[in-house]
Amino acid sequence: MLEAPNRRPARFITFEGGEGVGKSTQVKRLLANLATQSIEAVRTREPGGTPKAEAIRSFILQGRSESWGAGAEAVLFAAARLDHVNQLIAPNLEKGTWVISDRFSDSTRAYQGLTGGVSPKLIDALEQLALDGHTPDLTIVLDMDPETAFKRVEQRAIEDGLALTGDRFEKEELDWHRRLREGFLDIARNNTDRCVVLSANQAEESLEQEIWSVVRTRFPELQAGTAA
């Protein structure tokens, strides 16, 4: 009997960082580069990724959970993440499809934990429940001064003719966002085996190349070469 050919392992990559640092753009660019290597990958986000998780996302970002406090929000995020992992992340990884997510559990640790004051013990318990062992293989933390990031968001809104209203977290004071930035950097410092911090204060194309270099270095099954 012929043995099935070895299948390249599926990888789970997450993007983290504060508001307006360009995560969504770089997720799309990474997917395009993976496609040049014949890597099948799905794009997702948190909170969200599944119908139930998207409903929780809408509830939170509309500010409807704000009066409940950071602890309750952490529980809601964990509930959304549990469904996300069970319905989208785990099934895709099991069938050999890479998963690229715009935010994951580090955001809860940074937003509700390090910035919101939720106890590490509760964050750890919720993370253990929701992840079920599905820790990212690589987390790319995009770092930028919050003031610079918000100027970028404002400029894009003007160019697109959109009103700058802000969601539940974008409306927080600048000092809150500075603490959030430090929260993500602290997570990266404590997880150097998984996290890579890259400056988002550069042209999208150069950041794309830097991310692609990190991904190729981390996962040797990818062919050496330049991004398309």
UniProtKB/TrEMBL annotation:
What's the catalysed reaction?
Answer: dTMP + ATP = dTDP + ADP
Q: Which Pfam families match?
A: Thymidylate_kin
- CC annotations in GO: cytosol
EC annotation from Swiss-Prot or TrEMBL: 2.7.4.9
Q: Which residues cross the membrane?
A: none
Q: Name one GO biological process term.
A: dTTP biosynthetic process
Q: Which CDD domains match?
A: TMPK
Positions of ATP binding: G17, G18, E19, G20, V21, G22, K23, S24
In what residue span(s) does the Thymidylate kinase-like domain sit? 15-211
Task: Please name the GO terms that the record assigns under molecular function.
Answer: ATP binding; dTMP kinase activity
At the top level, the lineage of the source is: Bacteria
Family as reported in the entry's similarity comment: Belongs to the thymidylate kinase family.
NCBIfam families associated with the record: DTMP_kinase (TIGR00041)
Function, in words: Phosphorylation of dTMP to form dTDP in both de novo and salvage pathways of dTTP synthesis.
Q: What is this protein called?
A: Thymidylate kinase
What gene codes for this chain?
tmk
